[in-house]
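Section: Multi-chain targets

For targets with more than one molecule, the full set of components is provided together so that the structure can be written out for the assembly as a whole rather than chain by chain. Components appear in the order listed by the source. The example entry contains two components.
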Amino acid sequence: MSPPRLSRHPWPAFLGRRTARLLPSLAVVLTASFAMIRLVPGDPVRAALGVDAAPALVAARRHQLGLDQPFLAQYRHYLAGLLHGDLGTSLVTGAPVAELVRTRLPATLGIALPAFLATLAVALPGGLLAAVHTRDGRRPRAELAFTAVTATLAGVPDFVLAAGLTALLAVGLQLLPVAGAAGAGSAVLPVLALALAPTAVLVRIVRVEALKVLSEDYMRTARAKRLPPVRLYLRHAAPNMATASLTVAGSLLPAMIAGTVLVEKVFAWPGIGSAMAQSVVAQDYPVVQAMVLILGTTVLLAGLAVDLLLALVNPRSAIGEM
Amino acid sequence: MNPVRLPVKPPRSPMTWIALAMLASLLLLAVAGPLVGGAAADRPDLSAVLQGPSAAHPFGTDNLGRDLLARVLTAARLSLLLAFAATLLSATAGILLGASTAVVGGRARRWLGALINLLLAFPALLVAVFLAVVFGAGATGALFALAVAGIPGFARLSQTLAAGVANTDYLAAARVLGLRRHRLIRRHVLPNIAEPLLLSTTMAAGTALVALSGLSFLGLGVQPPAYDWGQLLNQGLDRIYAQPVPALAPGLAVLYAALTFQLLGEVLAGGVARRGPALRARREAPAEGRPATGDQVLQIEDLTVELPTPDGVIRPVRGVSLTLRGGEIVGLVGESGSGKSLTALAIADLLPEQARVTRRTHRLLGADLTTMTAKERHHHLATALAMIFQSPASALNPSLRVGTQLTEAVRAHRGASRAEAAEQAAGALRRVALSPTLLRSRPHQLSGGQRQRVMIASGLMVRPGLIIADEPTTALDVTVQRQITDLLSGIRQDSPTAVLFISHDLALVAGLCERVLVMYAGTVVESLPTDRLATATRHPYARALVESVPALTADRDRPLRTVEGSPPDPLTPPAGCPFQPRCAHRRDRCATDTPSLTELDPGHRVACWHPLPLPVQAATS
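Its structure, encoded as tokens over all components, is:
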């Protein structure tokens, strides 16, 4: 029997298909962010400037925002602006929103990415270790404790945890900076708040995946060879649980990115999320609009990155079956 | 053989009671909270603004001097009501949308699926924030924003569940009967997906509560003078550095509610899982032999294996003894469940931890395993014994190259260098008639027969004294079976390796082995040279087993013999001879005393009080 072969150039085809899948979602984000300011109830400009703003000023702002033009023309103008990196102007400060994004996006990625990596770094080995210790129904008490603890941690809302951490670690014990971004230490609490619940969710799923792998025939073969445990678990078990575990981890990423909105507010972290929270309250819609666009696009690109990573880890299943 | 998996009884969890108690307290809070806290919650006291915790105000007071404990209690009703309402709306819309995919046509189903996928690409919280802005800040806007944001999740779940129902016979039958779509959904789709949906709805209620609190916390949800927990947390946040308790109190309420739903979901999920297919205890039994001298490879005496099951301890292997000499191939036959494979795993010390193994003697290549420490035993077995399992498709690791899997054992146990190991692996592949170029392949690139050859080559790598092959050909085509048995037969011609060949296929064993042990219900009932197998079995069970094998020359007009009855329940083994309840030749003593293996002719032992006479043709030939 001749070995089955992958088609000659699987990668370009895979990238093409995956990117094509991104386009409709991107269109949704663009359209939704554009439509937002037109959909809000009442006059957004008057709301932002205050009820006693001079009518001439309101009209000027409306003109500046292009709100007095036909709808389709506005959309064209919006998309053209985006192509030139123009995200509009803040109603409150008058500053270009693109500038705000430039300063804020790195701060958000600076907690979201470490939080995701921390989740992987704890949950993947943690789930495998838990599976090894509880396989075949051994240590039922430890298994019950594991389930109870992870179920509890998985239920802790990130912003509530953020508030609790602030009160406990920063204010009570004065160990870590409580607010703002000053040095690496100040990122510890936001990252912890973002990562805890996803880690608890993921570690459980990894354990179940690992239990499945550990009961496979090839693991019995490996045990029959009496390989050292490190080789048994890292070489034989880990690669076979990577795809499923990373897929689940990838599905947790969007919620983690969205979670930055609340967590950044608690820690006054100068990121996209806190900018969005502030501008929502100030009804500074051009800023809200841009932040929705940026967060939405970040989520989509993160999904793309996870799929590419999965394809690298396991080319056969990811590329072959997509 | 399938891997031995022990059934596990889930420990009775106190979580059920905790979750129910928490839910009850939450519901009580929603009903009674405003009644208890109501008056104090809205009574300003300008003499006591922004106080910390005190006896009069356990959680402190807010900027108007209102008691925060009372406000947290009062806010419970609004927080929970909004969460329940949002969940109910998204569940209803999402489930209907998802379930309808089961009854609409192919094109509509694809479009709906694509739409759901598109919406699911965005996190619900982000969608909710967006919609809350569009709907306008306020409790109603937040409620609907959250309800809409939750729809895709419910739709996807019920779509997946409904897809399982969509292709079932009863839905097809209902379609043929001409039922209308809404009736199909209501009568046939929804009832069949109700249970997992209930679970998700519970979990979603918790998520909705947290998300609504989040929206209020951002200032998008409940607006003053009304208040929920999220808004109280928002008001307290500015004070968190100075007075943590007033700020955290509403957060703790959110946490408590979130954990309640989380645990409730956990308990429900456990209930759903527990009603899944019940785990059945797999059991297998052992073989026999008698001590022998000379170039013994394996000697095991009086092997007994006990396994705990939810219904009690079973003894699937009972007093099996077995001896193998160098260069010998011995067959171990019996029905599934007779204990063959457990005997093999016990010899290899590979049984699960809970299994209790006792044996009087266990010698392998001259070393006494019973007196060794676990570490010494582990090391000795690593090089003295190799195992080949059934189903080569799954016995090789799909993620590792063939070369890695061949070389790792000698590298770990014989300290071979990478180059030495690779050279030996190439040699091992040649011995099993495979090209050394396969070292770079991965298992999925090989055929079933090639994989089993790789398994054998892998076993040969450590140059073991004993190879245990557990049904190595069962999963293969008949023509490939022959190649594998020829290979095993050839191995002991070039080396003094002994082979224990486990199979339920008597014909195969007869063609390959020199001696055969027949197992029944965990004991060896007969041990004889293979050339006597066809004609001279003396145990009633072994005889029945032989007669149940169809020969090509068999008279097809005569019905094939089968063994009447079924093997004993391992939990309640019969007294006396294990076969006596099924035995046509049973007499009084059989039900009271257990027969032991007794030598009738040289090399022929039978465990039976009344061995059958030799058939006439065998006696005369």
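The CA atoms of residues 6 and 316 of chain A lie 8 Å apart.
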